[in-house]
Each structure stands twice: as C-alpha cells, then as structure tokens.
Amino acid sequence: MEAIHLYSSQCILGEGPYWHAQRNSFFWVDIETGTLFEYSMDKRKVKTWSFTHRISLVLEGKEDHLILALDLNIARFNLETETLDWLVSIEDSLSGNRLNDGKCDAFGRLWIGSMNLKFKQGAGSLYSLDQNLRVQKHLDQITISNGMAWTRNNKTLYFIDSPTQKVKAYHFDLEQGEIQFDRNAIEIPDSLGTPDGMCIDQEGKLWIAHYGGSGVYRWDPMSGKLIEKIHLPVPHITSCAFGGKKLDTLLVTTARENLNESQLKEFPLSGDVFLIQTNTTGFLPNCCAL
To answer: What positions does the domain SMP-30/Gluconolactonase/LRE-like region occupy (predicted)?
Structure first.
C-alpha cells in the first residue's frame, strides 16, 4: 500500500476526515484557519467554507446539514443555504479550551473531547451529546482528546489521549451511552510518534495516524501488536477515515504546524491530504442525530 497525494490543501492543522456517502465526498478541516473542505469524488474538485472560529470536527447530520465543532460550540451547518444554527456550548466557562476530535455512536450521539489551547495537562474532558442536546461528561483529566472507534458489536470504545501514548479500551453500553475502563489495548513507543486520529476496519484492526511518525499505522488492539505502516512523505499525520464506494480507501490528513522553514522545504506536502487504497474495508460513519 502507498499513499497517493490527493489535494494541496496546505493546512496548518488538517484534521477531521469524514466520508459523506450520499454526496460521494470526503470532508476535512483546517482547525487553525477555520476552513472546511469538501472533495467531490465525482467532480474531482474541492469546495471550501471559512468560519471565524477554530473548526475541529465535521460530521453528517440530518438532510442537507453538517454538524460542526467551532471552538467550544456545536453547530448545525446547512449546505444549501450555508447558514449556521448554534446548538450548544460545551465548557463555555473554559475560554482557554477548545473542542477537538469526535464521532457519533450507533444511536447518533455525538462523542467529543476537549483540550487546552496551550496543551495544559489534564485540562480536557470527554463528553457525549444526545439528540435532546443533553451534555454528559464521561472522562476528565484528559490532555489531548483524540481518536475514537467502536467495535462492530458496539461493546467496546477505543479512545486516545495523545500524550499518554496509549489506546485505551472501554466497555461501551450503547443503550445507556455509558463507558467503563477495560484495559490499555495498545502502547505506542515514543520513537513511532504520537497517536492522533484513528478509525477501525471490519477485521477489528485500528488504523492510527502517528503525529511525528510519518505514517498511518495499523495495529491489532487485541494483541497490542503493530501489523504494518504506510509511509507518507510528511512527518505530521493527524487523522484518517475510510471512504469511497467500497469503503476501502483511507483519506489521510496532515499538518504544517511545528515545522520550521527548512523542514517545510524538505516536506513541502505537509498540510495536504492523501489517499491510501487498502486491502480491507471500513464502516460507514454513523450519522449524527442532532
């Protein structure tokens, strides 16, 4: 497997890859510039929208809407009218924080984490948000809330707090929307970079973007062992998501941040997005009930 350059987005902090099957499009964001991208697989063209907030998340909502995380707020974005409907603020008293990665469970609840803008240790939390806009905190003392993935049977949630270098497994109660710590599924050596965003394939293996690790790594969460690495020509890999007609293509986001001038000359594709044709398949993302 190899990574193919898809689009020169030159993101400061590219994140949030998402496959929108109905539109046959990949979405992603540049957190720091507040830019939302859509790459149409039919038209082979990119459309962008700009917001006056950091944007860390894009998910599919009802009808022609997307669900976005903008700073500490969750909003509904109408793709036809291009208008925002503000839904709820999370941690509105913590101005030094912002929302980060998130996904929806099989019931359409949004699970999303927070982090401090200056990476203050333990300043973030993990929340869920149901269709009635009820916010529930599940974990605190999180530093950089990142990748999430559910197993096929919805009985396990895998979660990454990046600086811990671990993927933790939680017992997941879909009916109640509750989690309970089970085990440390994967421990990643510092030499391989820092675990960031991730997704799961139909074989139950985790595909993890390694920030500073120049690749997407496939791990077995049952054995904790590394299966393979797909190298990318940039150091900071931020996230990945399955998509395409057969759900066998990974969209991979990257970042330009934390690279000096000489490093950017050495890795000029930093901040761009890539596609990886895999030998396995992922799952359609769950739509948001908001």
So the answer is: 13-256
Residue 246's CB is within 10 A of a number of other CB atoms, namely 11
- At position 18, the amino acid (one-letter code) is Y
Question: Which residues are catalytically annotated?
Answer: 196
pLDDT in tens, 75-95: 999 999 999 999 999 998 888
The tokens describing 251, both together, are 């969209």
Q: Which of 231, 238, 211, 261 is nearest to 32 (CA)?
A: 238
Nearest-5° angle of CA 249, CA 239, CA 247? 20
Residue 261, classed as helix, strand or coil, is helix
Looking at 2.120.10.80, 2.120.10.30, 3.40.50.300, 3.60.40.10, the CATH number of the domain 3-277 comes to 2.120.10.30
pTM of the shown model:
0.97
227 φ/ψ angles, rounded to the nearest 5 degrees: -95, -50
Candidates 79, 80, 50; CA nearest to 67 is 79
Measure CA 108 to chain center.
Answer: 16
Query: In Å, what is the CA distance from 111 to each residue of 49, 139, 254?
Result: 24, 11, 22
Res. 63 pLDDT band, cuts 50 70 90: confident
Domain ranges of the chain: 3-277
